[in-house]
Amino acid sequence: MSNTLGFGNRKFSINRNTGVPRPARRFSNTEPGINEASSKIHRQFRAAHEGHLPHAGLDATRASTGVVWCTERAAEHGFLDEPDKWANLGQGAPEVEDDIEGCFPRPKTIDISLNSREYGPTAGIKPLREAVANLYNEMHRKGKPSQYTWENVAIVPGGRAGLIRIAAVLNNAYVGFFIPDYTAYNEMLSLFKNFAAIPVPLSEEDGYHIHPDKIAEEIARGTSVIITSNPRNPTGLVVANPELAEIQDICRERATLVSDEFYSGYNYTSNCDGTSISAAENVIDVDEDDVLIIDGLTKRFRLPGWRVAWILGPKEFIKAIGSCGSYLDGGTNVPFQEAAIPMLEPALVKKEMQALQHHFKAKRDYVIERLRGMGFTIRHVPDSTFYIWLNLEGLPGPISDGLNFFQACLEEKVIVVPGIFFDLNPARRRDLFDSPCHHFVRFSYGPKMDVLKMGCDGIERVVNKFKKLVSHPNYK
């Protein structure tokens, strides 16, 4: 059995503000290697992680997620001055242009009705809630006696806002989450004091698989809320039926399952036939099964700037989630809600997903071929999303961890995200550099093909540069 937590025999740790080694701490378990101890980017990360000495009332550690931190470092290298000369493979966003064959053109203008000038309901406008319910009933609940209605849907201003609303209405609970997973969970899980976040490490050797028996173990220990992305960010893998149905059976009447399904349309497991992945398919009673599904226009409709998302669940949950918007975010932009309604016609969505899947699978295959040609070992080809969880262990030592590889890529105008950010550690109970994600980066093939080619070219230059460096007779 592999050591999934990656602990060794750590003798000392590093002062997070200065980067200087200091005496042993009880939860530091491995000695930092030369690539960490001598690395500017590692010292910079450690200093930023705990924050600088705060101003009164300021906790700087809540200021940014991993992707934002990476963008800030890229800005120091000129990214914001000449973004067109960079390959941003770090941002978790799909291409937004209208040139994907088979996809419908996005609106370039929006008719702003008189009603939409008013404050909108914090749970969203009823016609959009009806359209979301109808979409899920048509795509995932045909023939089932229990159907979603508009009262099972809350419209929220983006996925993060949706997660924050869900967190705000949770009862006192242990909340189980998986490692690795979406970086913003880290901040959300540390923000609220009405629950305790419990990490569940997954094994690389096992393909980061969420087995039903792992869910049963967590419920047995008292976990009453489980949150996970599915399809999975950052690994690009999916929990599909029949295992997804088994997991929902285990949770039924025992735990609330929060299923983040923003990548549900990026599904390559069904021959790109337009089928999307959703826990909605396995719900027995939409008002009794404690399953909260969150999705939106951001990823599969390729409209991240619109900030229109939704939550499906039992009416009692949705009522509370809608109400708490009055003190958290104020609700979603009404004109954009109105403009979203015609996009959710089921036949149109099915056709859109078919085009999306063919296009992004082709990009995935291109990137996999390029990376393998450079010498990367990719054990688990992603079957969903637009991410590759890229193992760096076979690279030359100076770039075999996520932060140093990230730093080297910046020199070639390429942005990736170090894997350490996906090792969620909201309570900071352990040293981040004991992380099993330390030797990974997340590579996004969301951007257009010309950006992917530029990014792969830059990464190839990085790899070749360091191969040449370590082979030099004077290298130590």
What does this protein look like?
With 476 residues, the protein is of the alpha/beta class. It contains 13 helices and 14 strands. It is globular and about 70 Å long. Helix 5 (159-169) runs parallel beside helix 6 (184-191) and helix 5 crosses helix 9. Residues 1-12 have low confidence and may be disordered. Belongs to the class-I pyridoxal-phosphate-dependent aminotransferase family. Residues 112-445 form the Aminotransferase class I/classII large domain.
Write the topology of this structure.
Blueprint: E1 13-14, E2 21-22, H1 34-37, H2 40-49, H3 66-76, E3 87-88, H4 126-140, E4 153-156, H5 159-169, E5 173-179, H6 184-191, E6 195-201, H7 212-220, E7 223-229, H8 243-251, E8 256-260, E9 291-296, E10 309-312, H9 315-328, H10 334-340, H11 346-374, E11 387-391, H12 402-410, E12 414-415, E13 417-418, E14 440-444, H13 449-471
Parallel strand pairs: 3-12, 5-6, 5-7, 7-8, 8-9
Antiparallel strand pairs: 1-2, 4-10, 9-10, 11-14, 13-14
Helix pairs in contact: 5-6, 5-9, 7-8, 11-13
